Structure formats: structure tokens, C-alpha cells
């Protein structure tokens, strides 16, 4: 996937760095943000090909970011993979109903997440 970009929005600096290194090592351009407000700013400044979005974050949580995305004509089509420790079937169902293309529970295998992004890009590209 040459020249594809990923935005990772997660309040955990260890997860952000781990995912950044995983995607960069596979040739993706990566931007990171520490909360939903930073994430929306990054989305509006330079929309990524895929958004990896944590749900539980301070300032603006992932579900509120999803609502903002869905309300924005320019960003509405951005593919989103929700990444969360919330792992019940109801949490997953709510995330997918909110418009996420995929839902991955933490802890996750970064290589599996790279593969999910590749698969998502192949479907949407």
C-alpha cells in the first residue's frame, strides 16, 4: 500500500507509538493524536486514508468523534477502525452502527491491525 496514510488517535502514548512504528515499517505515512480534539484537527488538516480511533479518551471520546465525522460532508467517507478495551458484543455493535468499518479490541496485535487496514483499503480503494 504505497503512499497510504493512517491517523492513529489514542490517549495511550505507548499504543500510539507501537502502532506508528508498525505502520511506518509497512510503508504507511502516519500521523498521531492524543485525544479526540487533536484527532479532529488532524482529520480536517490532512484527511487520512484510514482512521484508527480509540473510544475511551479524555476531552472528546471516540464515539463523539464518530458523530462529528458523520456530520461532516468532507470527512464522512473516512474509513474508521475503532480500537477499544470495550469488548462486549453491545460495544462492538454500537461502534459498527456509529459507522465504523471495523472494531478491534485491546490488547491487539499490531500486525493484525496493519492487515485489517490493508483489507479495508482493498475494499474501499
Characterise this structure.
- The chain is of the alpha/beta class.
- Helix content is 46%, strand content 19%.
- The chain has five helices and five strands; from the N terminus they run βαβαβαβαβα.
- It has a five-stranded parallel sheet, with helices on both faces.
- Strand 3, helix 3 (62-71) and strand 4 form a beta-alpha-beta unit.
- The longest helix is centred in the last third of the chain and has 15 residues, at 110-124.
- The protein is globular.
- The mean pLDDT is 93.
Entry summary:
By secondary structure, the protein is an alpha/beta fold. Helices cover 46% and strands 19% of the residues. It contains five helices and five strands.
Amino acid at each position: 500500500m504505497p503512499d497510504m496514510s493512517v491517523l492513529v488517535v489514542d490517549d495511550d502514548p505507548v499504543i500510539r507509538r507501537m502502532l506508528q512504528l508498525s505502520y511506518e515499517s509497512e510503508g504507511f505515512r502516519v500521523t498521531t493524536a492524543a485525544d479526540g480534539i487533536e484527532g479532529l484537527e488532524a482529520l480536517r488538516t490532512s484527511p487520512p486514508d484510514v482512521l484508527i480511533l480509540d473510544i475511551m479518551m479524555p476531552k472528546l471520546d471516540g464515539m463523539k468523534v464518530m458523530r462529528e465525522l458523520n456530520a461532516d460532508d468532507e470527512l464522512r467517507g473516512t474509513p474508521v477502525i475503532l480500537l477499544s478495551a470495550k469488548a462486549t458484543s453491545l460495544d462492538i455493535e454500537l461502534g459498527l452502527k456509529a459507522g465504523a468499518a471495523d472494531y478491534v479490541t485491546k490488547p491487539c496485535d499490531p500486525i493484525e491491525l496493519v492487515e485489517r487496514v490493508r483489507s479495508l483499503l482493498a475494499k474501499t480503494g
